[in-house]
Design a protein that fits this description.
Length: 224
């Protein structure tokens, strides 16, 4: 692929710096910058590697950047590296990196969950959960409450919970006095709600922000 530039875009090197030489990858959280460099140095000369970390805990978010000296090297890395790295060209530095990281993570997370959503009876982990965990005297219903430290975006939360079959509605509610997120989710069956709670309670969305998912009374007999 040959990438042309506008005459008004400045020097060729400026365009390369911002758009064509930096790639964004999903990596194991145990990776160090040296591990990242070792995995990607075969594709070209690396200028730097960096790992995105949680600002509070200092732990890796499982995401990183690799900057090459030439666009052709970055392109080769994207084409030839293992698919598990989900390598793409990074957004220019003058754009919001946090929103880019969030969109990248949420898109890939939805793909992973979609690939993992087999019929309930085919998943051993769900069958064993159904036999053991439901013995706990917790009121089960088709309706769930979702709480987060960060505010929700309606479309993104709907897309996340819609991965479990039977979603009837997703109602995101905002508290004008706090910055937290709250939503009510309802499924057509209690089985779907149980599975959604099992899969998504404690799930980090976006990275570093754990969802709290609990059952809400829906007016039906929970003994069913």
């Amino acid at each position: 692929v040959f990438i042309a530039q506008s005459r008004a875009s400045g020097s060729h090197r400026d365009v390369e710096d911002e758009e064509l030489t930096r790639i964004f990858v999903m990596i194991p959280k145990t990776y160090t910058e040296e591990d990242l460099r070792e995995k990607f140095k075969m594709y070209g000369d690396i200028e730097y590697c960096s790992i995105i970390k949680n600002k509070t805990t200092g732990e890796s978010k499982g995401l990183g950047y690799v900057r090459y000296l030439k666009p052709s090297q970055a392109a080769r890395a994207i084409e030839e590296c293992d698919r598990s790295y989900r390598a793409i060209l990074a957004e220019p530095k003058n754009k919001s990196s946090e929103s880019f990281e969030h969109d990248y993570y949420s898109n890939n997370m939805r793909q992973d969950l979609r690939g993992n959503m087999l019929p309930f009876c085919m998943q051993p982990e769900f069958c064993s959960f159904e036999k053991t965990e439901t013995r706990i005297q917790e009121p089960v219903s088709k309706r769930l409450s979702v709480v987060s430290r960060l505010p929700f975006i309606q479309e993104q939360l709907f897309a996340l919970f819609d991965l479990v079959p039977g979603l009837e509605y997703c109602d995101v509610q905002r508290d004008p006095h706090t910055n937290s997120g709250y939503a009510v989710i309802q499924y057509s069956t209690a089985a779907s709600a149980i599975y959604a709670k099992y899969k998504l309670h404690g799930f980090e969305y976006p990275p570093g922000n754990r969802l709290t998912v609990i059952f809400l009374e829906d007016g039906n007999d929970s003994s069913e």
